Amino acid sequence: MSLYMPRLKNRYKTQVIDKLCRKFGYGNRMQAPRLLKIVVNKGVGEATQNKKLLDGAIDELRRITGQHPVVRRARKSVSNFKLRAGMPIGVTVTLRGDRMWEFLDRLITLALPRVRDFRGVPDGSFDGRGNYSLGVREQIIFPEISVDQVEKISGLGMTFVTSAATDEEALELLRELGMPFVRRQAA
Question: What is the secondary structure of 127-154 as a DSSP string?
Answer without folding.
Answer: -SSS-EEEEES-GGGSTTS-GGG-SS--
